[in-house]
Write a structure and sequence with these properties.
27% strand; D-amino Acid Aminotransferase, Chain A, domain 1; 9-stranded antiparallel β-sheet; Rossmann fold; 12 helices; N5-carboxyaminoimidazole ribonucleotide synthase (chains A, B); PurT/PurK_preATP-grasp (chains A, B); ATP-binding (chains A, B); homodimer; 3 domains; alpha+beta; purine biosynthesis (chains A, B); EC 6.3.4.18 (chains A, B); 32% helix; Dna Ligase, domain 1
Amino acid sequence: MIVGVIGGGQLARMMIPAAVELGIELHVLAEAEGMSAGLAAVAVGDYRDRDAVLAFADTVDVVTFDHEHVPQEILRELVSRGVAVHPGPDALQYAQDKLLMREKLASLGLPVPDWARASSADELADFLDDHGGRAVVKTARGGYDGKGVRVVRAAHEADDWFTALAEDGNGGDLLVEELVDFSRELAQLVARRPSGEVVAWPLVETVQKEGVCAEVIAPAPHSAGRIADLAADIAFAVAEGVGVTGVLAVELFQTTDGRLLVNELAMRPHNSGHWSIDGSTTSQFEQHLRAVLDLPLGATGCHDDWSVMVNILGGPTSGSLEDRYPAALAAHPLVKVHNYGKSPRPGRKIGHVTAGGTELDDVSYEARAAAALLVE
Amino acid sequence: MIVGVIGGGQLARMMIPAAVELGIELHVLAEAEGMSAGLAAVAVGDYRDRDAVLAFADTVDVVTFDHEHVPQEILRELVSRGVAVHPGPDALQYAQDKLLMREKLASLGLPVPDWARASSADELADFLDDHGGRAVVKTARGGYDGKGVRVVRAAHEADDWFTALAEDGNGGDLLVEELVDFSRELAQLVARRPSGEVVAWPLVETVQKEGVCAEVIAPAPHSAGRIADLAADIAFAVAEGVGVTGVLAVELFQTTDGRLLVNELAMRPHNSGHWSIDGSTTSQFEQHLRAVLDLPLGATGCHDDWSVMVNILGGPTSGSLEDRYPAALAAHPLVKVHNYGKSPRPGRKIGHVTAGGTELDDVSYEARAAAALLVE
């Protein structure tokens, strides 16, 4: 059983432990030497290079991904050549293009923010007029971690993007959305295998800082009952509706009036599920491997009443993460440290920590304090 | 931080996930291509080949082991060249030579079975006379998994071993021990770092079949209080007394009259600690890496009231372990499967499964049933 992963970032890296335990060979097509998942790299190549991807795919039993950026043409050629690709291009297109995603979710009858396709500043102005003079504008493609997302209060504030799209050979429109009045952000992680089985982990709360996930609390506080059921129903409907295989993360807004709206989709293991490595019977990385191999899925219960994951962003102001281990590990023997083997750089995700326990206040403190010792 | 592991078996393999998560580079000196820990192999060489071991040691920050068989001369040369070796030769000698081990434990005042050094059938006959006509004879060196261990009722039954020892250039004696009247076997796992910190996991019960570990129950049933305290005291005394670094497993007999006697020592991650991968906050493999790097040790609490580990011995009668995944994983979504990537062979340890939960009967059933589906 050889699983091929396109992309050598930390998501591919975190598949390695699960693959080793299950006796699955993991082959990574890395963007460069020395990537986070370098241990499992068998080839270096660009995911936009048709020949490199096809040659890599010939050596594996199933192709999956560290990211969602492999072009549709290449994905479809793989499928036409009989390669098992999970998630497949029909599903991945909704993670690659936010306008397609909004249209699909709307057609599935799922709750989303008010949105529109805007091809000009005039159309954006109309949307602003209808939504209290403010909106979120998103590029349909290429955004992540807050990039390609902008809050605007005047139509001219997206002029540079309209110009760029006009100059781009592919053209295209912007997605404009209402600025949702939300009380918090949640994420519902599920996994689906080709033969149809779908499982959900508990709903989690995600805390963003400057558009980047900073902290995840599992399960989301005060979410038992209606909210948890609703989130799972939405995520199952998305998974079935788009036919995703592997792990799917559905990022949600909980509105101040208690509704859930779908914000974004990710069709791969996701930062909101990193807690599951230490906190769940089956980690999202093990589950992703099981799912893409169409193996029965594992249990998704929790080891602890509460798990809190805190990202390590940027890294220490001097030296390496490992230099901080003596202090951080001594002070926090209960905390699990995950180091992606990436060099520190402002804002870069270079690791995370997870704590678990029975009292949320204590667990949050443990995770935050350990993360602070690793970067301060 | 590069940890070098001499030997490429499943113990080295199971260090890989912990190393990946902590961002530690793991370099394995493997006995051959395609070993269980092949993913981390950077060199192939014989652990008895001085030049191969020295060249390997030059590329790493600390040397540790998948097994205890590296010759003392090579270990001592490494130390004399300034290489950090954990556990070091002064400790490892007690895992390499059972006569030295018995002498050391006796000098530390630790409880052991009655024993003697036997250099001839006459001396063995004397011991048999004093112990009801039966004894266990062990070769001092080279035994594992029941090999090099024999129950005898007459002195001539060890003649072949005496002859072999006489012919061996190194000569040597046999260890003879009373046949202990035990109610069960236990194991106490601890870890010690060079700067002195020692931690213990809960005492476990081990179930042997034909001299090979078949099943481990963590914690050992009916062991709270006196027995658990005694076992931890013994293991701490051994760890300090022999100056071990890394993980130490102390195998114990619980006698029918309620005493604990030290049976064997292992100075490396041990089969009795495999449950900790899924069942403890810190697995023995992560702890071993932390210990040999002299990093602060992690917490050793349990995720579940009970964990049961069942070895997969021999493997399926036809096909591979992975062929059995669909049936085994579907029936046991709570069970964690560990596959060492070794080809099936009668009696060979090729993997293990672990289950956890609140009712020991249920947990044992889950683990045993999953293991059965994987080999039947």
